[in-house]
Amino acid sequence: MTHNLVYEDFWVCGIHIKEMKMNIALASDHAGYELKRGIIAYLKEKGIAHWDFGCDSEESVDYADYAEKAMNGILSGEHDRAILVCGSGLGMAIVANKFRGIRATPCTDGYLSEMSRRHNDSNCLTLGGRILPLDEALHIVDIWLETGYEGGRHQRRIDKISRIEEKNFKA
After folding, report:
1. What is the rounded CA–CA span in Å between residue 128 and residue 31?
2. Is the pLDDT of residue 146 over 70?
3. What is the pLDDT of residue 17?
4. Residues 79-91: what's their mean pLDDT?
5. What is the set of active-site residues?
6. Which domains does the chain possess?
7. Helices 110-118 & 134-146, crossing angle to 10 degrees?
8. Bridge-partner residues for 84, per DSSP?
């Protein structure tokens, strides 16, 4: 599944600007709640459209319930990408990768974030609320949002993943 992000052209003081518009789905469990709140504030500051699929507190919940809601937001076409946060980022990634066309990547640094987009066309970033301070998480988010997909030889690999999904996922 590839979403074409919408670009808006406009002029500011005689300079042509081409701005990327995207809509991000967010979700967390209780362990990722505080980090998700910081990410939401950052997205608001940057003017990036987003929707929070929950959870809404630090009260214990099951991450799978919230990851599912966010992934359905991507699959419906309402959202272009997702950012999911749990304690380690791993549980959310496992759930997200159960959905056809989702390439969820748990990232703990800028390099992984960049490569997840450049080489893997990641459409779902997962983060660990118990392992990442907010400043590091925002650095990872920034790189993930700004980095494009290279295509080329990497598309062959994405196509193989899609064929594996078609073979192994039930309709």
Report:
1. 8
2. yes
3. 47
4. 98
5. 86, 119
6. 22-168 (3.40.1400.10)
7. 20
8. 27, 126
